[in-house]
């Protein structure tokens, strides 16, 4: 903004423009166009220096690491909110990669229970990651019974 004021004052030293707002907008537009053109011009020295740098350097690697660590902290906080049984099922299925049969055998529960508790845990974890409370929402038994009788 200061550059535009400077250019406008400098251009108006000889005479005050008749239509000042239009003049200011024209100065601002031309200034932005010139800045964009200069930004696209790359010096030969810079190109020569860039060729000596290893091409595999990733300028945003540190930022990606920070975002990944933050996401891992949020996931860990969401997992910590789960009940012990649901947490164990989520970890066995999603982290250790066990299938439903292996998980149910290891925990001594049915396959349907594994699937149901995994679904509840993943919903709660997704809720946490999206900024919610991350709590498991269980439907009341009476509510399920009423839904079945209506349907």
Structure report:
This protein is mainly alpha-helical and 151 residues long. Helix content is 73%, strand content 0%. The protein contains eight helices and no strands. Helix 5 (84-95) crosses helix 7. The termini are far apart. The relative contact order is 0.07. The model has no long low-confidence stretch (mean pLDDT 78).
Task: Provide a short characterization of the protein structure.
This protein has 151 residues and is mostly helical.
Strand content: under 5%
Please report the number of helical segments: 8
Distance between the termini: 66 Å
Which word captures the global form?
Answer: rod-shaped
Average residue pLDDT: 78
SSE class:
mainly alpha
The proportion of residues forming helix, as a percent range, comes to over 70%
* Radius of gyration of CA atoms, rounded to a whole number: 31 Å
Key features of this structure:
8 helices, 151 residues, mainly alpha
Q: How do the strands and helices of this protein lay out in sequence?
A:
Blueprint: H1 2-11, H2 20-40, H3 44-52, H4 61-81, H5 84-95, H6 100-107, H7 111-129, H8 141-150
Helix pairs in contact: 1-2, 4-7, 5-7, 6-7
């Amino acid at each position: 903004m200061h550059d535009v004021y400077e250019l406008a004052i400098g251009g108006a030293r000889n005479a005050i423009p008749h239509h000042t707002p239009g003049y200011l907008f024209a100065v601002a537009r031309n200034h932005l166009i010139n800045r964009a053109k200069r930004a696209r011009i790359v010096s030969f020295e810079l190109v020569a220096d860039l060729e000596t740098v290893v091409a595999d350097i990733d300028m945003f690697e540190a930022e990606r690491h920070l975002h990944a660590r933050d996401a891992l902290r949020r996931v860990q906080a969401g997992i910590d909110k789960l009940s012990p049984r649901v947490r164990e099922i989520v970890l066995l299925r999603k982290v250790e990669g066990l299938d439903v049969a292996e998980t149910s055998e290891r925990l001594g529960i049915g396959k349907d229970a594994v699937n149901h508790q995994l679904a509840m845990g993943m919903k709660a974890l997704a809720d946490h990651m999206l900024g919610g409370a991350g709590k498991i929402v269980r439907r009341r038994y009476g509510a399920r019974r009423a839904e079945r009788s209506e349907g």
